[in-house]
Design brief:
37% of the residues lie in helices and 27% in strands. The protein is built from 7 helices and 9 strands; from the N terminus they run ααααβααβββββαβββ. α3 packs antiparallel against α4 and α5 crosses α6. The longest helix is centred in the N-terminal third of the chain and has 25 residues.
Length: 290
């Protein structure tokens, strides 16, 4: 009887303090509405910040990246001399990309073109950076390729080859000078492939130049000078040191004209660091400012 009384008392107490069902539901709904209002006021008072699109690289940044990749291909391929088909394709693509983004619309008349430029890549023989070979190629026409092949074989035999090639452009003075370092070797094939002696020197060709339009320089080779840079070569074998050949006069006699052949160098990309030029046959030369 006592336990039944205690239980009844607890039930009665609980019923007395517990809110009616309708009141509990009303209180719960009030809390939900209050929370929603607070969140809405918080979001309304916040400062609006629109979504920001990722920053796009500038044209200069894109060109810098392309130039970096092109120089890497040039270094890995021996300035293009030993380029694989894949490297040639990569270089051609990068060159086209740079030309399309050329920051200088009239390179041939821009003062930026003046200065010393070192050859870093070409899709043809490196010695063809010299205006002497431009003129020879113009005179020989379709047979020029045979001459280039023969000259490449002659300079490359017994470990010889083309070293540093620098082109100096001075449009104000109307001059273009090519300085090509060549390592020449002489050997006796029947005794092996080691040279009897080897030396290196510079073949310097100077000529007149003038802008024909915004991209084209007209160049006429005038003289070619041989300078022996290697003091270790035997003096009796250094008979050509300092010799200057008037190539324009020679070509006038051969061609029968009043002046040497005028050849053209077209520049399609130019900035403070790099220049991309082409010959009339489409051969490409990439130069970096010295």
């Amino acid at each position: 009887a006592s336990m039944s009384s205690a239980t009844s008392a607890r039930v009665a107490y609980s019923a007395g303090v517990r809110a009616p069902g309708g009141a509990r539901r009303s209180f719960r709904a009030t809390r939900i509405v209050s929370r929603a209002v607070a969140e809405d006021e918080s979001s309304s008072s916040a400062v609006y910040q629109p979504a920001v699109a990722p920053e796009q690289p500038s044209g200069a940044d894109v060109n810098a990246a392309a130039k970096k990749r092109l120089l890497a291909v040039a270094a890995a391929s021996g300035r293009g001399l030993d380029a694989t088909p894949a490297q040639k394709t990569a270089a051609s693509s990068l060159i086209a990309e740079l030309i399309a983004a050329n920051p200088n619309p009239e390179p041939a008349t821009s003062p930026t073109i003046d200065g010393d430029w070192e050859l870093v890549y070409s899709d043809t023989f490196l010695f063809r950076s010299s205006p002497f070979f431009w003129a020879v190629g113009s005179m020989m026409g379709d047979t020029a390729d045979f001459f280039y092949q023969a000259h490449s074989h002659q300079t490359g035999i017994f470990g010889g080859g083309v070293g540093r090639v620098v082109q100096t452009v001075d449009t104000k003075g109307g001059r273009l000078i090519s300085d090509c370092v060549v390592k020449a070797s002489v050997g006796i094939p029947l005794l092996g492939f080691s040279p009897v002696f080897a030396g290196y020197g510079s073949v310097i060709t100077a000529g007149r130049c003038a802008a024909k339009d915004g991209t084209r320089l007209a160049v006429t080779a005038e003289t070619t000078t041989v300078r022996q840079d290697d003091a270790n070569v035997l003096p009796q074998l250094n008979f050509l040191n300092g010799t200057t050949v008037p190539v324009e006069d020679v070509m006038k006699q051969v061609g029968g004209g009043e002046a040497g052949p005028e050849v053209y160098l077209d520049t399609f990309y130019l900035d403070d660091e790099m220049r991309i030029s082409k010959l009339e046959d489409g051969s490409v030369f990439v130069y970096q400012r010295c």
